[in-house]
Amino acid sequence: FKKNKLSHLPGLRSMLAPMAPWSSLLPTTFWNPGLSWQWNWRNQVYSKFGLQTISTLGFLDGRPSIFTISLDVASEFLSLKGRYHKGEETTSVLRLWGGNLFTENGSEWSRHRRIMNPAFSPETYALVWDEGAKLYQEMMEGERWDDENDVLISAINPITSKFALIIIGRCGFGEPLSWRTTAPESGMSLSEALAIVSATSIARMVIPWWIYKLPIKRLRDIETAYTSLDAHMKVLIASRQEEVSNGKEIERKDVCRLMMRANEGQGTLSMTDEELVGNTYLMLVAGHDTTARTLDAAVGLLALYEDIQEEVHDELQAVISTSGKIDFKDIPRLVKVQACFLEASRLFPAASAVTRTITETIVLKTDEEDGHGGQIILEPGTMFFIDLVGLHYNPKYFPDPEEFRPSRWYGTAESDMTTFSLGPRICIGRRFALTEAVVFLTSLLRDWRLQIVLDPGETKEQWRGRVLKATTGLTLGVGKVPVRLTRR
Ligand code: HEM
Questions:
Q1: Which atom, in ligand 1's list, is nearest to the CA of 104?
Q2: What is the 108 CA–ligand 1 centroid distance (Å)?
Q3: Which of 64, 397, 453, 459 would give a disulfide with 5, using CB separation of 3.0 to 4.6 Å?
């Protein structure tokens, strides 16, 4: 059955295919691998078949898919052009407001990328650094931690989420968001609306729209979140357009102004109104949720591994003692801080899989371990997944994969940071995310010692099981991270 489509590879056979829209809404069980199987069953599935590339098939939805945890297969595949499209799982949830850089293929994709590329420049990263350092101070004052020596935070998650949203707002859209911004009287704040939309966008694809009109509070909140987010994005765009038409346009090439110019037909590349809103949504979601969720994991891990935290603090001290303060040009010397973020991202990759739909037959060489005559054939219509969770826990590339060992990333080239994918469609925001993460963690670790907050009678091992357990949705992250800050 469908053996050819599956390149005769053994693997998971279930009622619903993993990661298909309906199965994503249901819990992971043997009949429905759903969204969490990559985490819950990690390498068990691959080791059961002794393979690094396996197939999956849903009997009810009949969807043939192939998953790989092989870096060689992934690199070869992602360097190919034009023989596959972005996978529908991710594109349909990110296309809610219109086609954008993430969802498009071929020449449409390259048009979007050429419009936005200039915004991802050293000037922008320097701005991210400066705004990040300023925002950290605003956060200390806003949360009233600046006069305290000991702070108990029940969950770091909303803090990192707010931090990352304000940074993308200020540095990507020139929007003067502040730490003290309160929710509008009617509707929801941008962060609240974005959080609900991100959490429910998969459900929104399969559950009919009229359900959300029923007089049930949770459903009405979802409806309000969508209308509020729509209104926020329109205000964001309109205020930039007003600045441009009042001649107040700042010369800075932030992503919003570049899109605006393209939308007004200035320059050789253009963008429709729908694409402008589609890309605004994409930047708000991709530009904050991924970084925030990885920062949650990094804070949790550093709080758990206090010896590694001390090593990072020593590195910071050395940088501070020579230059007096830490500034943007010091980033190359902050190897250990960056490595902690990358290691958190290896253990908890916010983008858990890179998905593609095959449009033309592809023959890929496979690793010896795959034992399939050295090749797999991907037929048109097959879904192909680079399983970043499986790859990141593959001992062939990451020995003792369950261990938090940031030193794996000392001196790694940006192109080898698998968490941001590989090849031409590598994450455009990778340096943006790294700069933001380094400034956040550096500021926090410079001033505070982080410790985990245990429940009464709980051990660190139990805490690990409770907190550092992935939650899956549009992105993957950890549970609520309770942390104690003690002033250094
Ligand atoms: C820890 C943080 C981040 C992680 C782990 C991450 C991961 C990824 C991955 C794996 C992809 C490739 C997806 C695919 O090809 O299917 C991607 C693409 C993308 N990311 Fe990120 N990302 C992060 C931060 C950011 C930030 C901060 C921004 C924007 C400011 C951003 C914007 C994008 C965009 C627009 C794309 C689509 C690029 C294209 O297709 O040309 N990401 N990201």
A1: 40
A2: 17
A3: 64
Pairwise CA distance, residues 202 & 20, whole Å: 10
Rounded to two decimals, the pTM is 0.94
Residue type, 457: G
Output the pLDDT for position 138: 95
Nearest to 464 by CA among 302, 300, 345, 346: 300
Q: What is the largest CA-CA distance in the chain?
A: 67
Residues in CB range of 459: below 8 A, 6 or more apart: none
State in Å: Cα 275 to ligand 1 middle: 18
- Picking from 373, 115, 470, 452, the residue whose alpha carbon sits closest to that of residue 257 is 115
Q: Which residue positions in the chain have pLDDT lower than 70?
A: 1-4, 182-186, 247-252, 371
The interface pTM score, or ipTM, of the predicted complex is 0.99
Q: Is the CB of 284 under 6 A from ligand 1?
A: no
Ligand 1, pocket-test mutation among 427, 438, 476, most atoms within 8 A of CB: 427
8 A C-beta contact, residue 314 and residue 450: no
pLDDT of residue 216: 86
Amino acid 217: pLDDT: 84
